From TrEMBL:
Residue span, Reverse transcriptase domain: 313-527
Protein name as annotated: Reverse transcriptase domain-containing protein
CDD domains the UniProt entry points to: RT_pepA17
Superkingdom field: Eukaryota
Database matches in PROSITE patterns: RT_POL
Amino acid sequence: MKQGKDYQIDERVKESPKTVAATMVDDGSRKTYMMCKEVKLINPRETGNTIKALIFFDTGSDCNYVTESIVNKLKLRQTSSNIRMVITGMVGTRKCESRKVTFGVQTLNGNVKNVQAYTVDSILERIPYLVNEKPEKGKWGKPDVLLGVEGIADLIIRNPIKQSTGEIVMETEVGVVTGGTRMVKRGIAEVENNEFHKFKANANITKKESQLRMDQIEQTWKLEVIGIKDLMTEYQEDKALEAFQKSLTVNSEGRCVVGWPWKNQEITPAEGYGLALGRLRSTIRRSKRSPELLECYDEYFKNLLEEGVIEKIKNQNETSRISYLPHQAVVTPQKSTTKLRVVFDASAKTNEGPSLNECLYKGPVMLPLLIGILLRARQGRYLVIADVEKAFLQVSLKQEDRDVTRFLWLKDKSKEAIKENLVIFRFTRVPFGVVSSPFLLAAVIRHLLSEENSELSKEIAENLYVDNVVLTSESEAESTKKAKEAKELFKKIKMQLREFHANHDININNEQEMTDETKVKLLGIEWNTSKDKFIWNWKIPQGGLQTKRQILQFYAAIYDPLGLLSPIILPWKILIQDLWKKGMSWDEKLELEEMRRCSELEKAFNQFNVIEVTRWIPQEYSEIHVFVDASERAVGLAVYARRSSSMTCKPQLIYGKTRLIPKRESRKLSVSIPRLELLAVTLGIRALEFIRQEIEVRKTYLWSDSACALHWLRKPPVGSRYISNRIDEVRRCKGIEFHHVRSTDNPRTKLHEDFSQKN
C-alpha cells in the first residue's frame, strides 16, 4: 500500500469546507485507471513558454492544483496572497505554503483556456491511466495538475459516457479522456497489484468582509479563555531568518545592510504604477484644501533625499522586480518631533499580481512580551525611556532590492501630477509599511546587542519594544550612566537614541536631552513623570452611549494591557455579549432595558473618569499572590505583589485579567460553577508562571474561595477528562502554595462587587 496524503488549505477564516478526494484501487482482476490526459501548458504572460504536463481530471474536487515544479518551469506569477497548507499523512503532519497561480491549457483547436490553481509540492504518486491513442494499453504517470469540477466544466464538450467494457469516456477541448474500471486477465496488465492511492484537500474560502468582522468580534468571547493562535508556521520563520542571515552585511559607513526575505525568488510583485499615480493625484487634490500640508509633504521628501534615505531613479531600464508604493500623509500634531509622517502602502492590491507584502515573509516576532516589559518597568526606583530616531530608516537596503520600493512625487508641487511633472524615487533604507520591516529592524538590533554581550545590552534586549528602550535603576547616577551608554551603543550601527523621559533629570554629553513634557506614553500607557504614576482618563460622549458600536468603541479605547482596570471594564464586556446574543445590529438603538443598564454603567464610570496608579513597586515586594474567582458570566484573577518581611505593608496590584464565559444555548450545555472555579485556578497558574518568567519572584501563592476546586487538586474525581486535564496542568507547576479564602475576603470577588454595587 502506498502512503496517501491529506492536504488542508487554511485561509485564516473557515466556512463550509470544500473537499476533493481521489482514490485508485487495484485488486488484480479489476484495474482502475484514473482520468488523465497529457496536454500542453502555457504561461499566459509569456506564450512562448510551454511545457507538456499530465492533467488528472477529478470530478470530486472544486479546487484546482498544480505542482511547484510546473510553476517554476513556466515561471508563473502569483495571483493572490499566500495561504497555509497542512499536509497530513500516515507518518504525521507537516506544514507548507501554497500560492494561487494562473496558467493556460492549450486546446485541440489551438486556443488557450486560463486556469487558476493552488500550488502543492506533489499531487499524487505515480498512478495508472489510459492512453487514448492505444486504449487497450495502460500507462503510469505522476500528475502535474489536478482539475476540479470548475476546471473540467470549462473544458468538457459532452457528458461522460460509460462504455460496455467498463471505461468512462469524456470528450473535452483537449481531447478524449478515458478512465474507470476494466476487467483484465492476470499477467496481461501493465500496472502493479494491490495499490491504494488517496489525495484529499479541504479548502476554506474567505467570507465576505462584513461577516468576517462579525466572526472576529464574536470570536473574542470564545477566545477569552487563555489560548494563543499560531499565525505563522515555523517554516516561514526559519526561512525569514535564513534570508536575513544570508543578506546581512555592514557597509563602509558602519550601517547594517539587509535584503528582503522573499518567499520565492521567482515571484514578482505587481508593478502598481497606475495605482500609485492615482493615489498621488488624490493626495494632491486633497492637499489643495490645506496648502501647508503639501508644503510639509514636499519638505519631508526633501529631507529624506538629503539624508540619503531615498534616491532618484537614474536608470529607467527594466530590472527583474519593480513595484511602486502608494503613499499618504499622517499628521500627528501632538507629537514633539515628527509632526508629519508619510505612510507607504505595500499591501496595495491591483489586478496585475500580488502586492509586495504578499511576496515577502513577515518574519518571526523578535520582541519581548509587552506585559513583561511593563512589569519590569514598575520595579526600578528610577525609570528612563527613549526611542530610536526614524528607526526603520537607519537600516540600509540591498541595491538589488530597492526597485520594489519605488514611489512617485512631484518635481514642482504647484503643478498637476502629470507625466512631465513626476519624479521617481526609491528607498535606500528599509521603509516602514512593508510587512518584513519590523522583523528586519528587530533582527539588526538583536545582532548588535548579541555582539556587544554586556549587562546593559542584555537589559536592552529584554526591554526593547520596536524602537522604544526602557531602562530601570536604583539610583539617579546609575540611571544617567545607563542612558549615556545606551546612546553610545546605538551609535555603533548609526542609530540615534532621542526623546529621553525619566522621573528625574538626565544630562547626556553635557546637553539637556530631557523634554519638558511631564505626561508621556510608556508603551501606550500615559505616564506622569513628575508624579511617577500611570494615568487613565476617559470621557463618555455627549448624549451617552446608545448603540452597540458606540459601547464597543468606548471601552475598547481604554488601553490597559496589565489588566489593572479589568474589574470596571468587565460590566461593559458583559453588556456587549448580551447585545451580541440578542442579535442587535451595530447602529440599532438600545432597547429600554439595555439603555437602563448602559445608563447605570455610565454613571458609575463617571466616578472613575481619572485613575492614577503608582508606577514604582520596590524590589522588596517579592511575594506574589494571585486571587481567582468565577461566576456564570466570567472568570477572573488579580495578582498582587507583597513585601515578605512586613505584615502591615499594603500589597500592590500588578496584574489582572477577566475572561467572559461563552453563552450557551441550553443550560444543559453550560459548565458548572465548580468547573469554572477550577478553570479560574488554571488561569491563575498560567498567570503565575508568566510572571515568574518575567520578573524575579521569591514565593508564589494562589488563593481561591472554591473549596471544591481546591479539593479536586488533592483528590481528582474519576472519569472527568475536563477536570483531570486542568489538574494535570496545575500540578506541573511547582513551587506554588494553595490556600482557601472566604468569598467576602477575596479581592478578585470584591473588585467586581464594589463596582457593581455602585451601579
